[in-house]
Write a structure and sequence with these properties.
625 residues, mainly beta, Immunoglobulin-like, six-stranded antiparallel beta sheet, five-stranded mixed beta sheet, 5 helices, 6% helix, disordered N terminus
Length: 625
């Protein structure tokens, strides 16, 4: 396995994330002369977060509290991390970046370095390197010394250099006796040879111990250990043999070859500081709405219910004020990230001479085939079809199909829609895009329609600061394969789809930058939830979910059951992990689910308010990074 760590300096251009950071009570009459982020270095893994400590001081060195809206955050490599409320940084992908915060009033700034590593084990013969790793990130647990290496060539028979290579794309390392890295560098420009990590033996001898190597063909990763059957190693790994031999005991000037692994993420590192009155949002996006002809949900929904730092529900006004936002406090933003378009795009303007039915769709005379079924147009430029990505809705009045002037831009909901979709303490989202361009009949009938299967959207919760959006507070990417209609081609759509008009549906692709694996469609897998029984011993509501393969082919693991749209205030106690409010359980004992085969998992819920426990299971196959 290319082992983890990504401890390298950042590359890339400066990227501005506006209006996000630490918030507290405004102290009037004080001048900020310095701000300070800590710690200076943070080491994360994709999908994990860390809340930076941020302090501001006046000329006398006294602490100063200033509103969140004064802070602007930048990441030199924005693909690596996202920056959220109260200085929360979340690992998105392997790499490294500088994170800088600026006070827009005083001009003061502070910078830290964040490295995102790509694996769950790390090996090194450098004690200081291991010490740096452990001291800067509690995600790493020290396993111990697994052998000893010589720091230089002592002249012993069979002693050879142990080379270390770095894959700069994944931030992981590889150890081998082969100075060419077993030819791997020839096939990847991102791999560099770092040098000799120590000296080891290439054959067994007195006082040596074999270092075995295992490989995972599914992920192209490796694992090294002196154990023939490493505890906890995935069954996907296969034994490759002896990689080299270590000294079993220290001899001469030999140095330890140490190993660390990712342990449980400390809650203290994601806890909101007491000086911050702005609570991190928890949203539970959920596929819902009227089902299509194949039983798939066609509407993407979400509900934001703000809470204080103790988890108590508060009003939108209170939550917005605590974050430094202004009335009406919160709104959604959406981007049509990928929308299949005819090629060439000019075919969107083809007008059929008379009314006709195309693949079951009614196309009136005088209406372009493109506008009816294939393309979207903005009112601000009704002669030019939109090409993704674009803001949903577009600026200048929204879409031509909308009968009203949609002035929501740069937000998703207009002022009147915002009023309809919000209560005192909640803000709803829903969208039901209808994409006839995904219809296979149309794709077969017209050669200019691409054979695409999905359109992709990115939806975010943002705060409002004087009518402008804050940085993203919570975001998820989702896709639709629905190829029917909802009164015609529809992008921003708050209404249900037309009954019986198509197949396919919506599914979540990623949450806050954490990519989800392949979503298993409802015609391949079915879920059956049991009733819930309360246990006085554990004080939890307990039940089961059965996952059944109703398709005709095997479903490969690992399988994950996401509980989307879970009731606010309800916690899944036995979750494998929680993706910012969407918990999931991994079926660790299932490698393949054959047709007709079922697997059952247990669920345990904490429900302090005794509210009705609702959720919608969604099944995903593959690794969650």
């Amino acid at each position: 396995m290319w082992s983890n760590d990504a401890m390298r300096r950042p590359v890339g251009s400066l990227f501005l994330l506006p209006l996000i950071g630490l918030s507290s009570t405004l102290s009037f009459g004080q001048t900020v002369t310095s701000i300070q982020l800590s710690p200076a270095n943070v080491y994360l893994v994709p999908g994990f977060s860390f809340v930076l400590a941020l302090s501001a001081k006046d000329t006398g060195g006294n602490p100063v509290s200033i509103p969140q809206s004064r802070y602007r955050w930048t990441a030199s490599n924005p693909d690596v991390v996202t920056i959220g409320v109260c200085g929360k940084i979340s690992g998105v992908r392997v790499g490294s970046t500088d994170v800088t915060v600026n006070d827009t009033v005083s001009g003061s700034s502070s910078t830290i370095h964040a490295a995102i590593s790509g694996d769950d084990h790390f090996w090194t013969a450098d004690p200081s390197e291991m010490s740096t790793l452990l001291s800067n990130s509690p995600v790493w647990d020290f396993e111990g010394t697994i052998g000893w290496v010589q720091p230089f060539n002592t002249g012993d028979t069979g002693l050879v250099p142990l080379w270390r290579f770095l894959d700069q794309d994944s931030g992981t390392h590889f150890w081998t006796e082969d100075s060419s890295g077993e030819l791997f560098p020839l096939y990847s420009k991102s791999v560099v040879r770092e040098g000799i990590a120590g000296w080891v033996f290439n054959y067994p001898g007195p006082g040596t111990v074999p270092m075995y190597r295992f490989s995972n063909p599914l992920t192209a990763q490796h694992f090294w250990g002196t154990e023939l059957q490493p505890i906890g190693l995935s069954s996907d790994y296969t034994f490759e043999g002896v990689a080299f031999y270590l000294l079993a005991e220290p001899a001469g000037q030999a140095v330890p070859f140490n190993r660390a692994h990712i342990g449980r993420w400390p809650a203290a590192w994601t806890a909101i500081p007491a000086t911050c009155t702005c609570s991190l949002p928890t949203i539970r996006p959920k596929p819902d709405g009227r089902n299509s002809n194949d039983g798939s949900p066609t509407q993407m929904t979400a509900n934001f219910i703000p809470t204080d730092l103790s988890g108590n529900v508060v009003t939108l006004a209170a939550a917005g004020a605590a974050c430094g936002f202004t009335n009406p406090w919160f709104n959604w933003q959406q981007t049509v990230s990928v929308s299949p378009s005819p090629k060439p795009i000019s075919v969107c303007s083809i007008v059929l001479p008379e009314a006709t039915k195309v693949c079951g769709y009614d196309v009136p005379s005088g209406i372009s085939l493109g506008e009816k079924l294939l393309c979207s147009y903005a009112k601000s430029n009704s002669s030019q079809p939109l090409v993704s990505p674009w803001s949903d809705p577009p600026s200048g009045g929204g879409y031509t199909r909308e009968t009203y002037y949609d002035d929501a831009y740069p937000f998703y909901l207009t002022a009147s829609e915002l009023s309809s979709f919000s209560t005192e303490n909640s803000l709803r989202f829903n969208d039901t895009p209808a994409k006839p361009v995904l219809n296979k009949c149309l794709q077969t009938t017209y050669s200019f329609i691409p054979t695409a299967t999905a359109a992709t959207y990115t939806t975010s919760l943002v705060g409002i600061v004087d009518g402008k959006p804050s940085a993203v507070l919570y975001s998820w990417t989702w896709k639709t394969t629905y190829n029917g209609t909802s009164g015609g081609i529809v992008e921003k759509n708050l209404n249900p789809v037309d009954p019986g008009s198509g197949t396919g549906g919506v599914s979540i692709v990623s949450i806050n930058g954490v990519a989800l694996p392949l979503a298993i469609s409802s015609d391949q897998v079915a879920t059956t939830a049991s009733g819930l029984a309360y246990s006085r011993v554990t004080q939890t509501f307990n039940g089961t979910i059965a996952v059944t393969n109703i398709g005709s082919s095997n479903i490969s693991g690992p399988l994950h059951v996401l509980l989307t749209g879970i009731t606010p205030g309800v916690t899944l106690v036995n979750a494998t992990r929680d993706l910012s409010g969407t918990p999931y359980i991994t079926l660790t004992n299932v490698t393949t689910l054959a047709p007709g085969q079922s697997a059952t998992l247990s669920v345990q819920f904490k429900n302090p308010s005794n509210a009705a426990i609702n959720f919608r299971p969604a099944i995903y196959s593959g690794s969650i990074n």
